[in-house]
C-alpha cells in the first residue's frame, strides 16, 4: 500500500499532467473552500505561495486572477504596493450556488411532486438557451420542450426564469404526489433524462482517484499541514467538478448502489480527516491587509453535516 504522502504526490502529479492546466478553476476552489469562510479577502502574494506546490507558478496565478477579475469572479484592491482580491458580488452568488452543493448533508425525503417547465412557447433559439440554463439547475428533459425537477419549487423556478427574462413565455406547473412515488417506467425515464450512467462513471473515477488516500490515512495518518491543505484542495476541486453535473436527485429516484452516494461519503470522511491540519497551514500562510486571515466562521463547521 502506498503511503499517504505518496498518494498526495500522485494527486499533484495527476493535476500537473492535465493540459491545459485549469489554474483559474483551482483558484476558485481555493477561494470557496479556504478563503471565503475566513472573510474572503487575501493578498495575492500569499495566494501564489499557497498554490505553487500544486503546480501553479506566480505568473500563472497573476494571469488567472486577472482573467477571473475580467470575468467578474474577483475584485481587486491595492493597499500600498500589495494587491488583495476577494470574490465580487456576482462571483459570490455563483460561488454560493456551486459550493453549497459540495458540502450538502443528507437530503430530506422526497415529497413525490414534480415541477414542470414547458418551453413550447419559446422560439427555437431561446428554448435551447433556457433549456441549458434549467438543466444547469438540475432539470431533466422528459419530452421535447418539457423539463422536470423533483425538488425545486414552482416559486424557485419562476425566480430563475425571471432572471433569464423568460418567465412570461414559460409555463410552470407542479404535479401531485402519487402512490407509489416511483415505478419501473419512471426510473427508466429518470436514467434517460439525466444520463445517470455517464454521471456514475464520473463518480467512479473520483472514487478510484481518492480511495488510495483514504486507505493510507487509515493505516498511518501522519500527513503534514501543507500536505493536508493540498489533499483537501484537490479533493474538493475534483468533487466539485462532478457535483456541477449532478442534479442531486432524491434518493428515492436513484439506484440502490449509487456511485454518487459512495463518492459523497468518501469526500466527507476524507475532509473530516484533513481539515484541521489544513486550517493550521492557512493560519500561518494567508494574509489580509490587516494581517493573518481571521478564523473560519461558524458555517464552516457545518460542512458535510458537521465537522466537529
UniProtKB/TrEMBL annotation:
It holds the Pfam family PaaX_M. Residues 194-283 form the Transcriptional repressor PaaX-like C-terminal domain. Residues 108-182 form the Transcriptional repressor PaaX-like central Cas2-like domain. InterPro entries: PaaX-like_central, PaaX-like_N, PaaX_C, PaaX_trns_reg, WH-like_DNA-bd_sf. Residues 22-89 form the Transcriptional repressor PaaX-like N-terminal domain. GO terms for biological process: DNA-templated transcription. It comes from the Bacteria. PANTHER family: PHENYLACETIC ACID REGULATOR-RELATED TRANSCRIPTIONAL REPRESSOR, TRANSCRIPTIONAL REPRESSOR PAAX. This is Phenylacetic acid degradation operon negative regulatory protein PaaX. The lineage of its organism: Bacteria, Pseudomonadati, Pseudomonadota, Gammaproteobacteria, Oceanospirillales. The gene is paaX.
Amino acid at each position: 500500500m502506498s503511503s499517504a504522502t505518496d498518494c498526495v504526490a500522485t494527486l499533484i502529479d495527476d493535476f500537473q499532467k492535465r493540459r491545459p492546466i485549469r489554474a483559474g478553476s483551482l483558484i476558485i476552489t481555493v477561494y470557496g473552500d479556504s478563503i471565503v469562510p475566513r472573510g474572503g479577502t487575501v493578498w495575492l502574494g500569499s495566494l501564489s505561495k499557497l498554490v505553487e506546490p500544486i503546480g501553479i507558478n506566480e505568473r500563472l496565478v497573476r494571469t488567472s486572477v486577472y482573467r477571473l477579475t475580467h470575468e467578474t469572479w474577483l475584485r481587486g484592491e491595492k493597499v500600498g504596493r500589495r494587491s488583495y482580491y476577494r470574490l465580487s458580488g456576482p462571483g459570490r452568488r455563483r460561488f454560493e450556488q456551486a459550493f453549497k452543493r459540495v458540502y450538502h448533508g443528507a437530503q430530506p425525503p422526497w415529497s413525490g411532486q414534480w415541477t414542470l417547465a414547458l418551453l413550447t412557447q419559446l422560439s427555437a433559439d431561446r428554448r435551447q438557451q433556457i433549456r441549458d440554463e434549467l438543466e444547469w439547475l438540475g432539470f431533466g428533459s422528459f419530452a421535447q420542450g418539457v423539463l422536470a425537477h423533483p425538488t425545486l419549487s414552482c416559486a424557485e423556478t419562476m425566480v430563475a426564469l425571471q432572471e433569464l427574462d423568460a418567465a412570461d413565455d414559460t409555463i410552470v406547473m407542479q404535479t401531485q404526489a402519487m402512490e407509489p412515488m416511483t415505478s419501473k417506467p419512471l426510473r427508466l425515464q429518470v436514467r434517460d433524462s439525466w444520463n445517470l450512467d455517464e454521471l456514475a462513471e464520473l463518480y467512479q473515477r473520483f472514487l478510484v482517484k481518492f480511495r488510495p488516500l483514504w486507505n493510507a490515512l487509515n493505516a498511518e495518518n501522519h500527513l503534514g499541514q501543507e500536505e493536508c491543505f493540498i489533499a483537501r484542495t484537490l479533493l474538493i476541486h475534483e468533487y466539485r467538478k462532478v457535483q456541477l453535473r449532478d442534479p442531486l436527485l432524491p434518493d428515492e429516484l436513484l439506484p440502490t448502489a449509487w456511485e454518487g452516494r459512495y463518492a459523497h461519503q468518501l469526500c466527507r470522511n476524507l475532509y473530516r480527516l484533513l481539515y484541521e491540519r489544513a486550517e493550521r497551514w492557512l493560519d500561518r500562510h494567508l494574509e489580509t491587509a490587516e494581517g493573518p486571515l481571521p478564523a473560519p466562521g461558524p458555517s464552516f463547521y457545518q460542512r458535510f453535516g458537521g465537522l466537529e
